[in-house]
Structures are given as structure tokens and as C-alpha cells.
């Protein structure tokens, strides 16, 4: 019995450890811990690295060698497409050869640079293949099949280390922990083969077909072996050009062990762990630390960064190409045939849509352009180029070009955010700055490589110009602080790099060579600070001095007379009366026949209730409103949506979260008779016996009554601030629009009141709006007020009475509920200390209501947790305060 208990306890411990590891913060610590450990192992070699010497090594690489190294790196990345061709054949995917290659390049280069355990590649492949029409039933097993095979080649090469075919005994002997890493990676290969040949794999991944053929298993391992083999060849090629004649087997063995360390670190691109192990291995072979570090820098540049930039270009154009093809298919037989020159002339305009991946890639290209400009300005140019520039331009022109390059670099970094958000003005400014940056980087030191890259990015932006349609986007304090911190950090790195590299480079120049232009780095701190400050000033001026056409146009309409006329022709709902509070703006869609009443919460327009108007126009009206909001980077959210409109929201691509339920009392069935209602009968009898008086005062109300009600309201608030948006508050002009139910003592003083809210449905629904009472009132005061209100509404001919909402009621109590709904259920059950959620529902149950669900409908692009915080902030802010424009 004790042994069984101990076994269960150990199982609980294992579950706890797994749960802790699933936390993002803990997963992020794993790469940091491994990198820190590797750093401690190799800190002696790192201290011997001199950045100036590294720069000197890189500056003396011949152009022919650069082309060879670049060709080897690009070929290595191209070889990785064998993975996609493998799953294309095995799962019979209907994709062309060129499309397969493009998708492979995009996914693999992103995965190489930023992938965390392959997740980046998986996500991008899923997105690209789905957009090409590959069904999810085929795509999911294909991705699952592909993910585990990518390191099988490295596992096979690990056996080469173990068997002595790839000797690295010195490195393994000095750092014995690497032995465990190599053995762990080696054992992955037999595990992979066993799984691939298992019956479960055949059932789940091969869709019930036979087990994976040996030929496919071999092809999988072969594809992975090709990737790692060519990557190692690229590493050796770069080393042979930068260091000289080096032994292929020795360098390749070091590369394999460094790659294993990089994989185990789970850091993006294995950065840190891979580099330090490779540095240790190369220095053990007798090469200088500066030479070894130069090899690593070039390898990172040619194998990771440049292919990724090409992948960004392909990603930016990919969806446009698909959009063009779709348009061509849709218009087949309708459009006249174009000749070759007409196609070339009209080619850029045929790209009519770019996905989020595309604009994200464009934004990162612009960001990379800014970084490249700053790196170019922070490092000295080649001497022969400086002499050419000297013959053409004067020193002041070169210095001005240098400072302007830094300023443009910071501006491009800041504008990259606007490019990702598709802002038209950001596109115009970015295009101009890219051209200007190309000119200044050329005139500061004949850096034609950077100039060509900037012009290519400008050309891609021009091709994609139709995607930049937004007038503006919200600028929040959080984003501003984040970008200020980021650019300040970049300025600091620029200063440190420019200052350190400059002095190190000067110390290792040939004797007697010290060009005057290199002294410009003596004021690198001024350049960094000036670029940072002036870029932010220019950006502030761009935002401040923009045309007056802004998001305020959406908030301009609060025409109450037009609202009254509209409600005279169309049916409203239980929330419609709150539109007269004046804290919401109106958007009139479909030529004024559909109304949206909304308030702004940061970058969201929160519509109160469902749209009003003919149901046949609602869907098109929502599309119209969303397009208008999207021009300013705003999302449309529907708060307190009813079940009747959920199919329309679903068609718009919205997600749903249940907010609670609304209590509707069918007045035809309401009665105080029966054993169940004995308590309510007793309350009514007691209040009538003690002389309390109920009355309903019709509007307009005298000032004396409103002043007395104000005192009751202030006593009820007891210093608390009013809430707004979906709740009524004490506003005399608003209270004048509807009847008010009063409960008076026998002396005639008002003890409690409740304002009524017309349902704007021809009198079928009566609703309570604002309810307040004095602090010292008899028990059952609100019960009696509700009883008399229900009886009064029934006498008036109303069909139902709305008792209001019970927040979080019946949310997340089913086992299949969403995680967020289960959390809401816990708040409903346990949250009585802060808000009596469960108690409020029990109170309203006294009156035997029917419960109708209410939902939050929101776009899939929004994060529910952040949206919830914005809604809480919207309801909680003071109703008379100016709307938050952050």
C-alpha cells in the first residue's frame, strides 16, 4: 500500500514538473541557463576576442570569396526544400514545384533565425499551405510528420562522432558535458525509426494506411542529412576563405557538436550555445580567436540573416501572387487579353491583397533597413572606397551624409511599425527615406551594397503600395514607451559598437595609414543621441501636423434628434435607452438605415448591444462599419450581443464569450400566489400595512423631485464614483426621458427609486435602469419595489419585464467550456467577496424569470484577456470624463 502511495506521489511530482515547464517564463529560462553555462565554459577564449581585429579580417575578404561563401550558404538553404518535396510526395499535396520551393524557403529561413524548437516553421507552413487550398485533414498529419524528422540527420552525424568517423576528442575531453549531449542526440535516431514504423503512427499520422515505408523513412533521414551536411560544408567553406587551409573533417566534426549544443539550447538559431562551442573548437585547432569569431559572424550573416531577408521578400509578395492568381481565375473569359507590355506595365497594381504575414514581413524589411544603415554608419568603410569618395566629394558632405544616414536609420526603425499596420503616410515617408538613405549611404563611403538593399526594399514597397490604406492607427502610451526603450537601446548599441570598433580598427591599420574620415567616430555619442532625438521629434511632428481627417470623425455624431426619429421607425432593444446618456457615438451605415452605438476603449470600438435596423441590412452594415474603423486601425466589438444575432457575427468571423444571462420575467405568468411566492406576499403585505406608498411619476419631473432623488443617489453611492457605458448613472436630463418608480415612507420621503428604460418595441418590454435607495431602509425594500413594478408593467400591457443582467451566470460550468470561461465560472462562484455574482442571480430568481444569454462578440485577432481589461476600464471610468483616445 505504501509503495503504491509513493508511486502516486512520484507521478504527482512528475506532473508538477511538467506543468512548471509548460510555463512560458520557465521555458524561456532554459536557453538562458544553457547559454550561461556554455559561456562559463568558454569565457577564457571570449576574453581574447578583439572586435577591431575581427572587423579587419572581414574587410580584407576578396569579392570572389564572398560570392563563393554566399553561393554555398544559399545552396544549403535551398537543399532544405527536400523536406517539403518529401511531404508533398508522401501526402500527395496538390502543389506546384515552384510553390513548394517558395514555401520551404520562407518557413525554413524563419525557422532558422527565430524558430523555437521548430514552432516558427510549423506555423508558417500551416499558414502558407492553407492559403494554397491544402485541406486541414491532409495538412495536419503532414506537418506532424515533418516536425520530428528535421534533426534525424544531425542524430546520424552524432553517431559519426561517437564511432570516431568525425573526431572531436579534444573538445569532448575538455568539456565532458558535451558527451551526454552527443549521446542524447544519437539515441534520437533509433527512437525516430521505431516511432515511424509503429502501428500507432500509421493510425494517427498516415490516416489509417499502412506503416511508413522503409523507403520513406530512409528518404526522411536522407533529407535531414542533406540539410546538416550542406550547412557543415558552408561552415567549412567560410572557414577556409577566412582562415586559410583547414581540415574538412576536423572542422565539420566541430560544427556537428556545436549544432547539437545549439539545438539543445532551444534558443533562436542556436545563438549563443552554437557560437561558443564552435569558437572553443576552432581555437583548440590552433586558430586565433579573432579569426574564429570572424568565421562565426560571416556564417551567421550568410546562412541565417541574408536568406531570411530573401524569405521576407518572398513572404511579402507571396499572398499578393496568390491574390493575383485568384483574380485571374475569377475573371477568366471576362477581361480582354493583354499583351506582354500591358502586363508588365500593370503588374504592380494587380496585387490587391496582402496578408498579415506579408505586411509583417514588409515591416521587418524596413526595420532591417534601419538597422543596416546604423551598422553601416557605426563601422569604418573600406580604405579604397574612402579614397574614391574623397576624389568625388568633400569631407563636410561625407560627414553630413553620415549623420543623415543615422537619422534615417532611426526613422526607418520607428516607421516599420506603421508599415506593419498598413498606414498610408508611413508608406509615403518610408519610401522617401529609403531613397534618401540609399543616396547618403553611397555618399558617406561608397557603400553601394547597402544602397542596393534599400532600393530593393523601396521597390517592394512600391509593388505593395495598394496595401497601405489606413489613415492612422491608435498610438498608446504602452507602445510609445516600448518603442522609446527599443530605440534608446539601439542608440546605446550603436554608440558602443561605433566607439569600440573605431578605436580597435585604427589600432590595427597598416603603419602610416590613418584617413581623416575615420575620425568622425570620435563624436559617435553625439551622432547616436542626435539621431535618436531628431527621429523622435520628426515622428512627433508627422503625427501632430497630419491632416485633420482623423479618427475623431467616427466620434462626431451624437445627434439625439436623429436617434429619436430613427427609433420612431425601427425597433430597439433593452439597451437602446442608454444611447440617450450622451456618452456614445453613432455610426450610421447603409445610408442611415443601420445604427451602431459605440464607445472607444483604446484601439477598440465597443458597440453596446446589437446593431439597430432592418435585419436584412445588418450583415452589410457590420462590414461597412468594420471597414470604416479599419481605416484607423480600430477593431469593432459587440458587447451584450443576443443569441438572435450570433449567426451574423459568426459569418463575420467573430469569436464569442458568454458574459452572463439576462433575467426576463414573463408578465402573463407573474403571480404572488402559491407556496413558492409566500415570502414575496409577506413582503408586500408588510409594506402596505406599514403605510409605504408606491407610485410611478411620469416625465417631465419637477426639479424638487430630481433634487430629492439626487440626495438618495449620493447616499447610496457613499463616495463611490458612478460607472458608465452599459450602466445608467444619475443625470437629470436623462432621467427626464422616462417614468420613475418611487417608494415613499408614510411621511412622504423617497426611500428608493428606479428609473424605467423603454424597450422601443411598442411597449412589449419594460426595463429597470437606475436603481438607488437610502442606506437605512427596512428589509425587503427592493423586493417590494420590484413587486409593484412588475404589477404596474403588467397593468400597462407589457409582455415581459427585464430585471437586468446577472454577470457570469451559467458561464463555464460545462466540462467542454473554454479555459477563459472556466476561469469566469470560478470568479462567479468564488467572487462574492468583490461582487456578489452568485448572490445577484439568486436574488433575481425570486421572481421566476427566464434567463437569456448575453455574449461578447470579438474579432479573432484580439486577445480575450486584454479585451476584458479594456472593457472593465471602459465600464469603470467616470461617465462624464472625456473618452479615452489612447
From TrEMBL:
Catalytic EC class: transferase
InterPro entries listed in its UniProt record: Acyl_CoA_acyltransferase, L-PG_synthase/AglD, LPG_synthase_C, PG_lysyltransferase
Record-annotated membrane-spanning stretches: 20-40, 61-83, 103-124, 136-157, 177-195, 215-236, 242-264, 293-317, 357-377, 397-415, 427-445, 451-468, 480-497, 517-539
Catalytic activities: L-lysyl-tRNA(Lys) + a 1,2-diacyl-sn-glycero-3-phospho-(1'-sn-glycerol) = a 1,2-diacyl-sn-glycero-3-phospho-1'-(3'-O-L-lysyl)-sn-glycerol + tRNA(Lys)
A GO molecular-function descriptor: phosphatidylglycerol lysyltransferase activity
Source domain of life: Bacteria
Domain Phosphatidylglycerol lysyltransferase C-terminal: 566-858
Any one cellular-component term (Gene Ontology): plasma membrane
Main location: membrane
Record SUPFAM superfamilies: Acyl-CoA N-acyltransferases (Nat)
Subcellular location: Cell membrane
Single Gene Ontology BP annotation: phospholipid homeostasis
Alphabetical UniProt keywords: Antibiotic resistance, Cell membrane, Lipid metabolism, Membrane, Transferase, Transmembrane, Transmembrane helix
EC assignment: 2.3.2.3
Topology in membrane: Multi-pass membrane protein
NCBIfam families membership: bifunc_MprF
Role description: Catalyzes the transfer of a lysyl group from L-lysyl-tRNA(Lys) to membrane-bound phosphatidylglycerol (PG), which produces lysylphosphatidylglycerol (LPG), a major component of the bacterial membrane with a positive net charge. LPG synthesis contributes to bacterial virulence as it is involved in the resistance mechanism against cationic antimicrobial peptides (CAMP) produces by the host's immune system (defensins, cathelicidins) and by the competing microorganisms.
Family per similarity comment: Belongs to the LPG synthase family.
Record-given protein name: Phosphatidylglycerol lysyltransferase
Name of the gene: mprF
Amino acid at each position: 500500500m505504501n509503495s503504491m502511495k509513493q508511486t502516486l506521489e512520484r507521478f504527482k511530482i512528475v506532473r508538477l514538473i511538467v506543468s512548471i515547464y509548460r510555463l512560458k517564463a520557465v521555458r524561456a529560462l532554459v536557453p538562458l541557463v544553457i547559454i550561461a553555462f556554455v559561456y562559463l565554459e568558454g569565457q577564457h577564449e571570449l576574453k581574447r576576442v578583439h572586435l577591431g581585429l575581427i572587423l579587419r579580417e572581414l574587410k580584407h575578404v576578396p569579392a570572389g570569396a564572398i560570392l563563393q561563401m554566399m553561393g554555398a550558404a544559399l545552396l544549403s538553404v535551398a537543399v532544405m526544400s527536400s523536406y517539403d518535396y518529401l511531404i508533398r510526395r508522401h501526402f500527395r499535396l496538390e502543389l506546384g514545384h515552384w510553390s513548394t520551393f517558395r514555401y520551404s524557403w520562407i518557413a525554413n529561413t524563419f525557422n532558422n533565425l527565430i524558430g523555437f524548437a521548430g514552432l516558427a516553421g510549423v506555423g508558417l507552413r500551416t499558414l502558407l499551405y492553407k492559403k494554397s487550398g491544402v485541406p486541414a485533414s491532409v495538412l495536419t498529419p503532414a506537418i506532424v510528420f515533418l516536425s520530428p524528422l528535421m534533426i534525424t540527420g544531425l542524430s546520424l552525424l552524432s553517431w559519426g562522432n561517437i564511432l570516431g568517423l568525425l573526431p572531436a576528442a579534444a573538445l569532448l575531453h575538455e568539456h565532458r558535458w558535451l558527451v551526454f549531449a552527443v549521446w542524447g542526440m544519437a539515441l534520437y535516431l533509433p527512437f525516430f525509426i521505431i516511432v515511424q514504423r509503429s502501428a500507432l503512427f500509421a493510425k494517427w499520422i498516415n490516416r489509417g494506411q499502412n506503416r511508413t515505408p522503409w523507403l520513406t523513412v530512409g528518404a526522411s533521414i536522407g533529407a535531414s542529412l542533406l540539410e546538416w551536411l550542406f550547412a557543415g560544408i558552408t561552415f567549412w567553406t567560410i572557414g577556409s576563405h577566412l582562415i586559410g587551409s583547414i581540415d574538412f573533417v576536423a572542422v565539420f566534426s566541430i560544427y556537428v557538436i556545436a549544432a547539437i549544443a545549439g539545438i539543445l539550447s532551444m534558443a533562436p538559431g542556436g545563438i549563443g550555445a552554437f557560437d561558443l562551442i564552435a569558437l572553443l573548437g576552432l581555437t583548440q585547432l590552433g586558430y586565433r580567436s579573432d579569426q574564429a569569431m570572424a568565421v562565426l559572424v560571416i556564417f551567421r550573416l550568410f546562412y541565417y540573416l541574408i536568406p531570411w531577408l530573401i524569405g521576407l521578400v518572398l513572404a511579402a509578395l507571396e499572398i499578393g501572387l496568390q491574390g493575383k492568381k485568384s483574380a485571374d481565375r475569377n475573371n477568366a473569359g471576362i477581361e480582354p487579353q493583354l499583351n506582354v507590355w500591358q502586363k508588365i506595365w500593370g503588374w504592380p497594381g494587380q496585387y490587391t491583397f496582402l496578408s498579415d504575414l506579408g505586411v509583417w514581413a514588409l515591416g521587418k524589411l524596413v526595420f532591417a533597413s534601419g538597422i543596416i544603415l546604423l551598422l553601416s554608419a557605426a563601422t569604418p568603410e573600406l580604405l579604397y572606397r574612402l579614397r574614391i569618395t574623397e576624389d568625388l566629394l568633400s569631407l563636410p558632405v561625407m560627414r553630413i551624409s553620415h549623420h543623415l544616414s543615422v537619422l534615417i536609420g532611426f526613422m526607418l526603425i520607428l516607421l516599420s511599425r506603421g508599415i506593419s499596420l498598413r498606414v498610408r503616410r508611413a508608406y509615403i515617408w518610408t519610401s522617401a527615406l529609403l531613397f534618401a538613405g540609399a543616396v547618403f549611404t553611397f555618399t558617406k563611403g561608397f557603400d553601394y551594397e547597402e544602397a542596393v538593399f534599400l532600393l530593393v526594399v523601396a521597390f517592394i514597397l512600391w509593388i505593395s503600395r495598394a496595401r497601405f490604406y489606413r489613415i492612422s492607427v491608435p498610438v498608446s502610451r504602452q507602445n510609445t514607451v516600448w518603442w522609446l526603450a527599443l530605440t534608446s537601446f539601439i542608440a546605446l548599441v550603436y554608440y558602443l559598437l561605433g566607439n569600440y570598433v573605431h578605436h580597435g580598427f585604427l589600432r590595427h591599420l597598416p603603419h602610416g595609414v590613418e584617413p581623416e574620415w575615420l575620425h568622425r567616430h570620435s563624436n559617435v555619442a553625439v551622432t547616436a543621441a542626435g539621431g535618436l532625438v531628431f527621429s523622435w521629434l520628426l515622428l512627433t511632428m508627422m503625427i501632430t501636423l497630419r491632416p485633420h481627417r482623423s479618427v475623431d470623425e467616427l466620434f462626431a455624431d451624437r445627434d439625439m434628434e436623429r436617434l429619436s426619429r430613427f427609433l420612431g421607425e425601427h425597433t430597439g432593444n433593452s439597451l437602446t435607452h442608454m444611447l440617450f446618456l450622451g456618452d456614445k457615438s453613432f455610426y450610421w451605415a447603409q445610408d442611415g438605415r443601420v445604427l451602431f452605438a459605440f464607445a472607444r476603449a483604446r484601439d477598440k470600438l465597443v458597440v453596446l448591444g446589437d446593431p439597430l435596423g432592418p435585419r436584412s441590412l445588418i450583415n452589410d452594415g457590420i462590414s461597412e462599419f468594420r471597414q470604416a474603423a479599419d481605416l484607423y486601425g480600430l477593431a469593432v466589438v459587440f458587447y451584450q450581443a443576443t443569441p438572435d444575432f450570433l449567426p451574423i457575427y459568426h459569418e463575420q468571423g467573430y469569436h464569442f464569450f458568454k458574459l452572463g444571462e439576462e433575467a426576463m420575467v414573463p408578465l402573463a405568468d407573474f403571480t404572488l400566489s402559491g407556496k413558492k411566492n409566500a415570502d414575496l406576499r409577506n413582503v408586500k403585505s408588510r409594506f402596505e400595512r406599514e403605510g409605504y406608498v408606491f407610485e410611478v411619476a411620469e416625465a417631465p419631473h419637477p426639479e424638487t423631485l430630481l433634487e430629492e432623488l439626487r440626495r438618495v443617489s449620493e447616499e447610496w453611492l457613499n463616495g463611490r464614483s458612478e460607472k458608465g457605458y452599459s450602466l445608467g448613472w444619475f443625470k437629470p436630463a436623462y432621467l427626464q426621458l422616462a417614468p420613475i418608480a418611487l417608494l415613499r415612507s408614510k411621511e412622504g420621503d423617497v426611500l428608493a427609486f428606479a428609473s424605467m428604460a423603454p424597450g422601443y418595441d411598442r411597449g412589449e418590454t419594460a426595463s429597470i435602469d437606475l436603481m438607488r435607495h437610502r442606506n437605512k431602509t427596512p428589509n425587503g425594500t427592493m423586493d417590494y419595489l420590484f413587486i409593484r413594478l412588475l404589477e404596474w408593467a403588467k397593468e400597462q400591457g407589457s409582455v415581459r419585464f427585464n430585471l437586468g443582467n446577472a454577470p457570469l451566470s451559467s458561464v463555464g460550468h460545462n466540462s467542454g467550456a473554454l479555459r477563459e470561461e472556466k476561469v469566469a465560472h470560478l470568479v462567479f462562484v468564488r467572487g462574492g467577496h468583490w461582487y456578489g455574482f452568485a448572490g445577484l442571480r439568486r436574488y433575481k430568481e425570486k421572481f421566476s424569470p427566464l434567463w437569456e444569454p448575453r455574449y461578447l462578440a470579438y474579432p479573432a485577432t484580439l486577445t480575450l484577456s486584454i479585451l476584458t481589461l479594456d472593457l472593465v476600464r471602459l465600464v469603470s471610468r467616470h461617465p462624464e470624463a472625456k473618452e479615452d483616445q489612447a
